[in-house]
User: Fold these one by one.
Assistant:
Number 1:
Amino acid sequence: MLYQNSDTEWRDCGDGSCTLMKQPFKHDVADSAQALVGTPATVFTGNDGLTQVHWPWYDNTARRIFFATQRIAPERAGALATQRLYYSSDGGASWTLAQFSFGSQPHHYQFITTEHDVLLAGVRDVSASEDADHGTLYVSSNGLEAGLFAPSLHHVRMSPREWWQETTFAGNLDVERSAELDGVLLANRYRANADGSPDLTCVQTVLTTDMGATWNLLPPPAGTTCPDGECHTHVRLDIEDFPTAYSPMDAVGLWLAQGNVGRCLSDKPEETYISNDSGKTWLVMSKERLIFEVSNHGALVAGAPTERLTNELTYTLDEGRTFQTCTFDLTNPGGEMLVNNILTRSFNAKNFILEGRVNQDRFAGGVLVHFEFDDVHERECGPDDYEEWRPNDGCLLGKHVVWQRRKPTAMCSKDRKSVV
């Protein structure tokens, strides 16, 4: 029997003959027994004695879709096992077989759900070496019902399987979705050699605005020059390297990221960047690595260095066109702190909290610094402070899309989110 507990985990029914069940589940109930409601229903059955059904991976980033895989044992000794992957977008009432060009060869998978009838899948052959850190990004075609996937981006960064990850759904993708603009994603991939193989010495950041149909390198920030002549912006997208590129909710078109400018992504971030047109153009926020946060629907962006002691907070009120610095003093010797994170209570707030410690000793005392920005804006925004913005020249996934958002130069507090 397959059941879901209060941590939204799915239990494995085991090998051989088994029946997977689903039961309606209340996500807001902490106790597992009370969370299970209604009558269980069969979602999958394997009776051939050769089928092993692993627990489905559950993704709630955009749409609630369940994933499950069958491992079919070989019919004769020495033959390789095969694999079938299924997904369900209706809570397990029906399942669709995912069909890839490599057939039923065993692979590792990581999925990205979207607000549209589209799935993206990072896929890596399980026969690759244990330290292989790349795969292929596929995109579903002809709707979710068809189950057909086509390759979108080769050599996409995909971390090796961790010891705690089960064999099918493993690895982390260097891919980030735009929070407000479906079809817009950033990805890191290895540059291809002339023979099509990955150049493992060069990772580059690419952007798509059409759900993976086309990918393009990022332009350098305005005024940037590169000595080797190959000048592109590259940003950190590995979720293990906090903070990864950030597209905040309620701030349409805004990206914040750490990275560098050049031919390839460097091993260590060199600068912090901001974009207010969903990655089409970029500005330098700082010449060092900053932790960042966004508030007031994008009208207030703040950042602070994380690799040195500081008593400064950098902020912008015009989406990166200009930056200002707020200096603070602490009572500890030196009056500085090592910042771990920046917090805000909501996207409509006008305040931040810096969280960190008084020195670089990891056992040092913690410190919180509260910043109020109630008076930095001259007034509340009015109708004349908003403008129409057309992402991707107004065409997004075949639709004419126009957003109404605050003008970057309007020095006003934004009391409502952007509307489409």
Note: The helical segments are 32-35.
Number 2:
Amino acid sequence: MDVRTNLTKMGKYLISIATALLSLSSFAQTPAEQTGLGFIYDDNSKTAKVYKVSGNKSEVKVPSVVVKDGKNYTVTSIGMSSFEMSKVKKIVLPSTIKNIEESAFNGCRSLQSINLPDNLTEIKNYTFHECVSLTSIAIPNTVTTIGEEAFSGCEKLQNIALSNAVKSIGERAFAACAGFTKITIPESISDIPASAFAGCFHVTTISIPKSVTKIHESAFYNCQSLQDFNVDKGNLNYASKDGVLYDKNLTKLVAFPGQRESITIPNTVTSIGDYAFSCCLGLTKIMIPQNVKEIGKGAFMNCRNLYTVILPIYIKEIQPATFYNCESIEYIVIPASVETLKSDAFYGCVKLGIIRLPDGALKTIEKNAFMNCESLVSIRIPQNVTKCDDKFENCISLKKINAPTGLQIPDNNSYDRSVVYY
């Protein structure tokens, strides 16, 4: 009796295994025409690459093997732009995938879920660009490179963990990932490229390991909620003091947290980096120490509530877009040491009514330096200025320009104003 019972149980067990294997086989080896996907086949390697998705399926399962004309092809690659702009919500990738090409899921605004296989070594340019519904994703420990704009515009994506296998992050890789609340740079990273984390509005802390040797301009531009930079004390190139990012010797102020409202700049600082204070909406006034001899481009761009600025007396240039869209500045004194007002220097300073350009070193005023300064009533261009390319466009209150004899002011026929030569 026991023997018969055992044989019956064994028979049922074997049948269940056979059924499972048959089911697995039928999933793994799928006729190409049944997948809703388009494939490119390589007869030499017996591999296939997905190059398009058809229809409006909400879920797509990419098979590990497809059958075409009686031949089996292992699916190893997702082609360039293959899912681009599709309405798919969930994508399941097989473990056979080794390569995902550029822009593969670019603009998949409905995509909420996708798995990345462990064979993957690179997330290429624009792979998940503007996948605005994606909330989470697991980056395999095999990934060493994350390309340009790979996750840019993934506004709902929460904090993701990057392993120490990641050696390279591309420009704007995580730009506009508004769901991030903290950023921890892996210890394997030495270079943080331009705008890598720009527009991560809700990030409050950024941790930088000792491995980082270069932080490019605007890497953390427009992180409006940022309260603190934390730099590993073992870093030989950068340091943080009171949550502000400096170079190691505190001679250059690299970046100021966007949530902060005030700062006392150390007297050791001699330069302010490009975009260092950009989009700091809480900043209302700042006094820059006299030791500072260089202020980078866009340094105070979009500091919309900044109304008082005291500039140091030794700077030689007001760099491009230094005070771009500083909408609250009403008055500013340019030091006599300044030789050039670069393009867009005061663009969009709509309340700027008085600006003092002293007689001194100033020789050049570049195009659009005062464009959209709607409250500017008059301006006197100093005697030593030999070139003015600014049309003073959209300076709707400007009625008179005092200029030295012989200086050419570009025509602007849109407004009723006069140029008085002295």
Note: The helical segments are 2-28.
Number 3:
Amino acid sequence: MPDRPQAQPSGGNLMAEVRQDITISVRGVNELRDASAAMKDVRDSAVGLGRVNASGVETAAASTERLAKAARASTNEMTSQRYQLYDVAAGYQMLANTLTGVAGAVVKLGMDYEASFQQVIRTTGLAGKEIEEVKGQLLDMSTKVPESFQNLSGIAAFGGQLGIAKNEIAEFTKTTAQLKATTDLTLDSAGQTLAMFQTTLGVAGKDFDNVASSILKVGVNSAATETQIANVSTQIGSMAQLAGYSADQVVGLAGAMASVRIPPELSRSIITQVFGKLQKSVQEGGASLETFAKVSGHSAEEVRQAWGTNKFAGIFTDFLAGLKQSGQGATQILQDIGIKSQRTVPALLRMAQASDLVKQTMADAKSGFDDTSTLTDQYGQIAQTTSAKMEMLKNSVANLGAAFGQSTNSGIGTFATMLTTVF
């Protein structure tokens, strides 16, 4: 029987080699069977012709039997080797499938990263070195906050749609992710809130952390949730800014209104009506301005000078405290300054009864804005949890895989373009 080649099977030729070995084995078995048949013919001929004595026949028969046993043993051995080769082939096939799956996953991940960041480029107008700079910032960020690169890219793209400046996109994205991690806000709500504070109240990108910290501190210390504070802030922001409220003062007023269960839509209506009446009184003077000034404990001139500056927020808080002290006459005071709505009057009276709360939320909002440790401390605790660490580890691994995938994608893209051109 010819010796089998000793070369190791390769992935592509393995099944061909298995078939060759099986063919060799079957050929050897056939040769042994032919030899056995020939010996049997010799024995039969010898007996028939009488030219071989009895002992010679027996010897030939024994030899034939041994040869038959050897043939059967060889057949069994070759069958065993055949199945072993099948097992080897199956193992190599499994390995090949696994490697192919991993390679495909890495390439797809790279494509997903590329598609996600393309939206950032589209909405922000990044160009040249800005693209790699912001992309690098988002990749690094994904290893420090429990949000994937794709999610962070989504926030950045959303920021571009909301008008966030290119050089502030990374800061916006980081603060939005941290605000989402430390509060009950969703990514969209957190992003919309920060964008409103910038576009309406002129908050700079470097102060996004301050706004987030202010919202978080009021949410922790009051009966309002961060989502309620953010929603009311978004509703009253533009009118409060007209009266002179700063970013932290808007947060404080929103926290107070949410705490006494004034819904966002009604809060907008109330602030629009009240501040609209006060603006007219400041411009025209008269009895309504005098009444407001007297109840707040200030002169009409002080009110006029404070309107449109951040000093007015303190005067309005004083007005609510004075309204509370007026007792049964509070409703008449509101009517005297032109506030008569059946929805606005009860809401203002509730705020007046909670004037101490208003003072507290205003103070918390300011301290939270001035010192961002509220945000950093809360986020630091979350970042140390096992789930957050595992998420950030997963992001690091995904970033590495995407880097390999993207290095391959350029060749795939070129090939796809070539095929598109051909067909």
Note: Confidence is low (pLDDT under 50) at residues 1-12, 49-54, 95-103, 407-423.
